[in-house]
Design goal:
alpha/beta
Length: 339
């Protein structure tokens, strides 16, 4: 039996109805395949929160200004942000990753490519070289986390204006109109939503990103933190590390990575279903089914880390002693009949 078959065999001999933990079982089998052992472990886990600023903020596409990016990044470093509080419940270490904030934060992992992106309504958000550098930084970071002994990584982001950039990317990569995919992000007013749609439409018409070239899309209408996350998903494939998708911005990064390297999808774990319109489209495109449906829209990786306690509980059962053999009873067999 291969590793996946061994993991499924173990599940089928635990004293419970077959596949009765549903998608949780499937995720543990996926982890077994990634780790290349049925003895699945995720004792050390971390969340990488990629941070950067966006020039498009000057178009009034967000409820707050770019100064909030550094404030939240600083609180992540200090351990007081929402993501730290939630991650602490599952003993998950949290790192802020500076991919391109306007203001540096002491204690953040410094992978800064530029001081934010340019205003994409007036030209490309960044150069192709900068996009490639950010992708490589994300890949390298995953390798470093693996060397430190981490066994699973949750992704997250912080960057005021990044739902505008990620939605523009989703429109380009999925071939959808901005009206169909643009959401309110962190609570935009009706007037703000109009400005956001205009900015996305303008950016797409101005830059004409090539939908068949995901790096071109990333450079022209993306963000440095989105590029770093996309690199992390590519790094998951390169370094055989499971990477958890967060909300829509993380999902856009995951889809970008999958467009660059289809094999990267095998190392991605979905977490929650964001309420942003593009999320459902991307998950369907990737044939992924998030487990958590809590209408979350906080960002910072909070949805991604919410999956970890569920995986912990599943692993307690998976590694537990409650088997048919221990109970002295016959194992359940499939009762499905073909019609």
């Amino acid at each position: 039996m291969n590793t996946k078959e061994q993991a499924r065999f173990r599940w089928d001999h635990i004293a419970k109805p077959l596949h009765s933990l549903g998608k949780l079982e499937d995720l543990i089998v996926q982890l077994a395949d990634i780790q290349q052992t049925p003895d699945v472990r995720m004792d050390r886990r971390c969340a990488l929160i990629f941070c950067a600023d966006h020039g498009v903020v000057e178009e009034g596409v967000s409820q707050s200004g770019s100064e909030v990016t550094v404030l939240v990044a600083r609180s992540i470093v200090e351990g007081t942000a929402n993501i730290n509080l939630m991650a602490g419940a599952s003993h998950t270490d949290v790192f802020a990753v500076d991919m391109g904030m306007l203001t540096a934060v002491s204690g953040a992992l410094d992978y800064r490519i530029a001081l934010g992106t340019q205003n994409m309504t007036k030209g490309p958000a960044m150069s192709r070289t900068q996009a490639e550098q950010a992708l490589q930084a994300g890949m390298d970071l995953v390798g470093q986390m693996k060397e430190k002994g981490y066994q699973i990584i949750a992704t997250g982001e912080m960057g005021i204006g990044n739902t505008t950039a990620s939605t523009a990317m989703a429109c380009a990569l999925l071939g959808c109109a901005p009206d169909a995919l643009t959401g309110r992000g962190a609570g935009l007013s009706d007037a703000g939503l109009v400005r956001k749609r205009w900015a996305i439409e303008r950016a797409l018409s101005m830059n004409r990103p090539d939908s068949k070239d995901p790096v071109d899309v990333l450079a022209k209408v993306g963000g440095l933190e989105i590029a770093g996350m996309a690199g992390a998903f590519l790094g998951g494939c390169k370094h055989r590390m499971p990477i958890i998708i967060d909300g829509v911005i993380s999902a856009v990064a995951a889809w970008t990575a999958a467009c660059i390297c289809p094999e990267a999808k095998d190392f991605m774990l979905p977490s929650h279903m964001s309420r942003e319109p593009a999320m459902k489209r991307i998950m369907e495109k990737m044939n992924l089914q998030p487990i958590v449906h809590a209408d979350m829209a906080l960002g910072e990786g909070t949805g991604a880390v919410s999956l970890i306690p569920l995986l912990d509980m599943a692993l307690r059962v998976y590694h537990g002693p409650h088997t048919f053999f221990e109970l002295g009873m016959d194992a359940y067999t499939s009762q499905e009949e073909s019609i």
